[in-house]
DNA sequence: ACACAAAATGATTGCGCTGTCATCAGCGCG
DNA sequence: CGCGCTGATGACAGCGCAATCATTTTGTGT
């Protein structure tokens, strides 16, 4: 207990390094955190000692003393969803090589557990937070507003963002899909959607508006399920759609899984795509373009969202207030391929 | 500086709660960590005080004092790969509701950066570690052997596992695929593989053996690339294969992306699957069974691997040495569907 | 050579919690 | 009625680092 740490079988500490290098502990701390304010002589000695002892800083002690960590919290509603898998990749690309690391919280599309996770993350004094929606509970929102760290909300555009945001106009993107289908000459489009979280609801709303504007809204052609999205679900939903409205001539799918599933179901039934049935997907993951026929889709910048979110966060962490462009709209792109065609 | 923490604008501490509840700080600590050794009276008072003050423990202080965290490190070679996405889901399912949380490290199929990540994670005093291979550098392996926490190696079966392991026999699984193709009567099978990490290499080796045993090994039909796997890559590799060996009558793909890509390329070229070309996939992600034709595949227990790995880890953390079954073989399953058929 | 600013370094203290013992109350039992 | 025992509680120190302020060294201009 009273032994000097040197005698402990444990890892070396700052003090051990300091002794080895013949400097004070704080100098060691400084050569690690801001080498430029330490003389070259001292720096060399310290670095040598660190190498010799195999020293690595204890993040817990650092966090306690400095009252902040190198953790960036990332809240996503799902791990299953390909969309967030892509966002995640972008995020990890962005943190790679920095001193930060990411911790993922999955709130499973439950605003309540999202609130819990926010509370939980915040209690860890994170360096920054990325959250995947604007749909927090009032308490959750308040926590974010008062968070002692930068916060980036992703996926959608700014209205109501707490601090910073990166995304695109999801509603406009869906409208673009509906418009595209209408412009191709399809007159009786359906809409398939799984997992009806608030964002999916809003997208459906946007579809309704745009369809109505083109005088082709028919509630019977809107098929949704609260269950998770999957290729199998896409097949199932198309099956339902065709049972309820056999004369449907196009279908907009709320994501790629569903679109692939719908396409496969159409092929099984010998329904010609795009002639008898147009299919337009949402998000455009890599496989969509390789299907036969290749899927038309609204491409969304998922990976880029992750990258930019991290970039903003890091900039703001290094120099609070330095980020001037606090709300980024990355846009979307309608990519017409073979699964829709002018008729 | 000399102010009592009460005056600080900051969050309440253990001491604040203790004062509020009229007990000592350590009692508060105990009611949080092991409520059963605290009298009911004290527990109630403390819980009340915690609620009143909105206290949350500071994990950094806890980690420093107790010399251990609630972090579980998860090292994966890729975030893009669907296989690890599934493992990840299993892992997150497993930690949900526990006091632990997962931190992911992506070593991008580089044993060297894996070593760095191991070092890095270990310096955080994790509660446990999950690593996705047996292919560490010698130094990396040594670190794992001496790790002061339980370690689970996943994906493969035990030979050479450092501590615990969960996986299945990858080589036997590939052999099963080759055998299946042979049993269907295909005589000139090819093999497509992307991202030739050590595991992929070994699988290719197993294919070679089994193919040779069935007298149908032809090096010209083995097409690999160091690049990442994707559906597009699957199309590309099949294209190469057919250019080099047009009489190929079946193809075993090292994962589902490639298989889907190969299938799509075959469809584009009007090659009848399974009649002219049999396709057998590896892993069997959800979409594989929904393709037209449905893909035959060796199904691997990815999600279950994640779940079991966490389960073992948590058991071992709670009671070191309590886990008796330290090497779990979850097996695989050959699922014959439409993309292969007896001829 | 000297004064003075700037740069480099150091001593001290405390972050919030838990490990380790010591203490104390309550209880059954001879 | 006091003994020892168990279960509950507390006092104290220290985990390893960084903030703060004090001190020393170095460099600069005249």
Record the SSE blueprint.
The structure is a homodimer of 343-residue chains.
Chain A: H1 14-21, H2 25-33, H3 40-53, H4 59-66, E1 71-76, H5 82-95, E2 101-106, H6 111-122, E3 128-131, H7 138-145, E4 151-155, E5 164-167, H8 170-183, E6 189-193, H9 198-213, E7 222-224, H10 231-244, E8 250-253, H11 256-268, E9 278-283, E10 296-299, H12 302-318, E11 327-329, E12 333-335
Parallel strand pairs in A: 1-2, 1-3, 3-4, 4-5, 5-11, 6-7, 6-8, 8-9, 9-10
Antiparallel strand pairs in A: 10-12
Helix pairs in contact in A: 1-2, 1-3, 5-12, 6-7, 8-9, 10-11
Chain A binds a DNA duplex (30 and 30 nucleotides) through helix 2 and helix 4.
Structure, explained:
Two copies of one chain form a homodimer. Chain A is an alpha/beta fold and 343 residues long. Chain A has three domains: 14-57, lambda repressor-like DNA-binding domains (434 Repressor (Amino-terminal Domain), Orthogonal Bundle), CATH 1.10.260; 69-168 and 303-332, Rossmann fold (3-Layer(aba) Sandwich), CATH 3.40.50.2300; 170-299, Rossmann fold (3-Layer(aba) Sandwich). Helix content of chain A is 43%, strand content 15%. Chain A has twelve helices and twelve strands. Chain A has helices at 14-21, 25-33, 40-53, 59-66, 82-95, 111-122, 138-145, 170-183, 198-213, 231-244, 256-268, 302-318, and strands spanning 71-76, 101-106, 128-131, 151-155, 164-167, 189-193, 222-224, 250-253, 278-283, 296-299, 327-329, 333-335. Chain A has a six-stranded parallel sheet with strand order 2-1-3-4-5-11. In chain A, strands 7-6-8-9-10-12 form a six-stranded mixed sheet, with helices on both faces. In chain A, strand 6 (189-193), helix 9 (198-213) and strand 7 form a beta-alpha-beta unit. In chain A, helix 1 packs across helix 2, helix 5 runs parallel beside helix 12 (302-318) and helix 6 (111-122) runs parallel beside helix 7 (138-145). The termini of chain A are far apart. In chain A, 50% of the residues are buried. Mean pLDDT of chain A is 93; it is low at 1-9. The interface between A and B is large, with 45 and 45 residues. The structure holds a DNA duplex (30 and 30 nucleotides).
């Amino acid at each position: 207990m009273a032994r000097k740490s040197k005698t402990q079988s444990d890892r070396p500490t700052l003090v051990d390094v300091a002794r080895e290098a013949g400097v004070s502990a704080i100098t060691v701390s400084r050569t690690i955190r801001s080498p430029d304010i330490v003389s070259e002589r001292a720096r060399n000695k310290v670095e040598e000692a660190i190498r010799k002892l195999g020293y690595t800083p204890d993040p817990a002690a650092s966090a306690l003393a400095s009252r902040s960590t190198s953790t960036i919290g990332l809240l996503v509603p799902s791990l299953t969803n390909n969309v967030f898998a892509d966002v995640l990749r972008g995020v990890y690309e962005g943190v790679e090589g920095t001193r930060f690391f990411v911790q993922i919280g999955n709130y499973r599309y439950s605003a309540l557990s999202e609130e819990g996770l926010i509370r939980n993350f915040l209690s860890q004094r994170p360096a920054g937070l990325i959250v995947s929606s604007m749909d927090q509970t009032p308490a959750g929102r308040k926590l974010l507003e008062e968070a002692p760290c930068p916060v980036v909300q992703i996926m959608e555009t700014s209205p109501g963002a707490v601090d910073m945001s990166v995304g695109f106009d999801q509603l406009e993107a869906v409208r673009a899909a509906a418009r595209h289908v209408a412009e191709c000459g399809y007159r009786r489009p359906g809409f398939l959607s799984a997992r009806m979280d608030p964002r999916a609801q809003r997208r459906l709303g946007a579809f309704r508006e745009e369809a109505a504007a083109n005088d082709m809204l028919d509630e019977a052609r809107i098929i949704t399920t609260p269950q998770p999205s999957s290729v199998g679900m896409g097949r199932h939903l198309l099956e339902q759609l065709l049972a309820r409205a056999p004369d449907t001539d196009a279908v907009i799918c709320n994501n790629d899984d569903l679109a692939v599933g719908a396409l496969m179901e159409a092929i099984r039934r010998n329904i010609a795509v795009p002639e008898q049935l147009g299919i337009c997907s949402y998000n455009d993951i890599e496989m969509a373009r390789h299907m036969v026929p290749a899927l038309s889709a609204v491409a969304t910048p998922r990976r880029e969202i992750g990258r930019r979110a991290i970039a903003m966060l890091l900039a703001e962490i290094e120099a609070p207030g330095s980020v001037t462009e606090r709300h980024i709209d990355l846009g979307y792109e309608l990519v017409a391929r073979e699964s829709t065609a002018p008729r």
